[in-house]
Write a structure and sequence with these properties.
- The protein is of the alpha/beta class.
- It is 39% helix and 14% strand.
- A ten-stranded mixed beta sheet has the order 1-2-5-4-3-6-12-8-13-11, sandwiched between helices. A four-stranded mixed beta sheet has the order 7-14-9-10.
- β3 (179-185), α7 (193-200) and β4 form a beta-alpha-beta unit.
- α1 (2-31) runs parallel beside α5.
- The longest helix is centred in the N-terminal third of the chain and has 30 residues, at 2-31.
- The radius of gyration is 23 Å and the shape is globular.
- It starts with a helix and ends in an 8-residue tail after the last helix.
- The structure holds 2-acetamido-2-deoxy-beta-D-glucopyranose (4 copies).
- The site of one 2-acetamido-2-deoxy-beta-D-glucopyranose has 2 residues, from loops.
- One 2-acetamido-2-deoxy-beta-D-glucopyranose (NAG) binds at residues 264, 266-267.
- Residues 101-110 have a biased composition (Basic and acidic residues).
């Protein structure tokens, strides 16, 4: 229960930060000083702030059962912001519209789970009174969404059997309450889960590829992590498992069996000393269906906002809560543009003997010392070069989170494979592409470009790869597969995308 104490203290801290930000913001809004972006100023951006807030003020307080508000997150620490009142736009254009029109809504609390104590603390009341004077809305109202079930469900998905929510997180989370890190892996990558959680402190949805005899060690790994690892694993991680119809395991225990069985924690982790070439997927020469995993994890995330990422990429601490705070604050001009939007993160790698930096200031020192470099600089710099990256690296760290620059996937960034916070309204990943064939995020990037997405690059948030800098290695098998994939994209997928989404000048795969 020391966790709880830490979380409570974090809360007090966050709250004071939030309040400071509010005061600052109040001053900013009234002086009219805007951030570092230099896009055209929409004329009406400040208006809905007042209109929406007036309209929603009453319903906000009237329709929310006190208990449900205070209860669920505070006890679990899912890295979210509680109330406070402010609204924000979100990734989809539809939602931006919904925002300005919403008034008597906020009634998706019928299914309120938990809400145990009903103890509305003074801190919450304080926060509400501060924000009441600001005149805006709650996070719940700022993010219109429907809660998702975490009940296990087995279904066929194309050529794959999927055990959705096979082992669900124990914490109940409302869809507006947090951000889910969604990812894919096989069990040998799950050593990354704890360092990831330690920084993320919010829900994780992971799809595990487990064909044939890789299935049992996968289940063992889930048990090992939940029973012997950090309590955050069982609290915050939902495991989905999938395998091809041609590579069914011998037996598949039920979810409840996996949840109820124990594990001997003196045994080494199941991923220790695995010889990759002896794994089922290697012996059968199976390609890794990276995008099937990505889509499963994203579609079954319990929250509206998601960060689809690769499990070796560790986010800067407090990212989920700071992001939601920005959404709730609603003071970022680019949020009001009608374009659909996503929030890309800058990505770095650090040398094998380095610690992963915990904040931008630390990161900047490491960049200067050359112990950190931009991600894949030595492998595929065009894929991960972020617009205004030089300016980003030079800009000093500030409080909270803001939009640093609004970029597009055109010009020098036409092959960009951004990793971003978005929603399930964004295009999915093409499940015909494999990890081995590379370019697995390119067709999604192309679609985002054609749909005229804005890429709202965040200023103080970033991802860092597990320590160790990747260098280019020649791999004839992979080169052959890359060639096949490129042909598939060019001859089959691109013509489809052109029919379905049309074209736009400057967009390419
Ligand atoms: C709220 O919590 C405080 C301290 O935890 C406790 O003393 C108080 O009785 C609680 N109030 C209600 C209404 O539960
Ligand atoms: C747990 O594993 C260790 C090491 O293999 C073994 O010595 C011990 O007897 C096991 N404990 C139980 C309860 O099975
Ligand atoms: C892993 O293998 C090495 C050498 O084969 C051995 O020394 C080590 O004890 C093994 N570790 C575990 C955790 O089994
Ligand atoms: C960044 O992290 C370092 C090391 O943990 C710490 O000393 C420093 O105060 C932090 N800076 C900011 C701005 O939070």
């Amino acid at each position: 229960m020391t966790m709880l104490g830490i979380i409570r203290r974090n809360w007090a801290l966050r709250l004071s930060v939030v309040m400071n930000v509010f005061v600052l913001l109040y001053v900013c809004v009234h002086i009219g000083s805007l951030g570092p972006w230099i896009e055209e100023a929409p004329t009406s951006w400040a208006q809905p702030l007042v209109e929406v807030s007036k309209a929603t003020e009453l319903s906000a307080t009237a329709s929310l059962p006190e208990g449900s508000k205070a209860g669920s997150t505070r006890e679990t620490g899912i890295g979210s912001i509680q109330d406070g009142k402010s609204a924000a736009s979100s990734a989809a254009t539809k939602e931006t519209a919904a925002l300005t029109m919403r008034d008597k809504t906020g009634k998706d609390n019928e299914e309120v789970q938990g809400g145990k104590s009903g103890n509305a603390t003074t801190t919450q009341k304080q926060q509400e009174s501060v924000s009441t004077t600001m005149g805006s809305m709650t996070l719940e109202e700022a993010i219109p969404c429907n809660d998702r079930s975490t009940t296990p469900k087995t279904a066929l998905r194309g050529d794959y059997w999927v055990l959705y929510n096979y082992v669900p997180m124990s914490t109940k989370v409302r869809c507006w309450e947090s951000v889910t890190y969604t990812t894919h892996a096989d069990y040998t990558f799950l050593d990354n889960l704890e360092p990831l959680l330690e920084r993320w402190q919010a829900p994780v949805s992971v799809a595990l590829y487990a064909p044939g005899t890789d299935f049992q060690p996968t289940v063992d790994t889930i048990k090992y992590l939940r029973i012997c690892g950090s309590p955050l694993v069982s609290q915050l991680v939902t495991f989905h498992v999938f395998f091809s119809t041609k590579h069914i395991p011998k037996t598949v225990p039920s979810s409840s069996k996996v949840l109820s069985e124990g594990w001997n924690c003196t045994l080494p982790p199941p991923w220790a000393n695995v010889t990759v070439s002896k794994m089922y997927k290697s012996e059968k020469k199976l390609l890794y269906p990276v995008n099937v995993g990505r889509n499963i994890a994203r579609e079954w995330a319990p929250t509206h906002y998601v960060l689809p990422s690769d499990i070796e990429l560790y986010p800067s601490p407090d990212l989920a809560s700071r992001f939601l705070e920005m959404i709730r604050r609603r003071d970022q001009q680019p949020l009001y543009k009608p374009n659909p939007k996503v929030f890309p993160l800058s990505i770095f790698e650090v040398s094998a003997d380095s610690q992963v930096p915990r904040n931008k200031t630390q990161l900047q020192k490491m960049l200067k010392a050359k112990t950190a470099i931009p991600f894949h600089k030595k492998v595929c710099s065009g894929c991960h070069n972020v617009p205004r990256s030089k300016e980003w690296q030079e800009a000093p760290e500030t409080e909270g989170l803001h939009v640093f620059h609004v970029g597009k996937r055109t010009g020098a960034f036409v092959h960009w494979e951004p990793i971003f916070i978005g929603t399930n309204n964004d295009p999915l990943y093409d499940e015909r592409l494999s990890w081995e064939g590379k370019s697995d995020k390119m067709t999604q990037g192309y679609t985002l470009c054609v749909l005229d997405y804005d890429f709202l690059i965040l200023d103080n948030a970033f991802l860092v790869h597990k320590p160790g800098i990747k260098t280019f290695k020649k791999d004839p098998v992979r080169d052959m597969l890359t060639g096949k994939t490129n042909a598939l994209i060019k001859k089959i997928i691109m013509p489809e995308l052109k029919v379905i989404y049309g074209t736009r000048k400057g967009c390419a795969v």
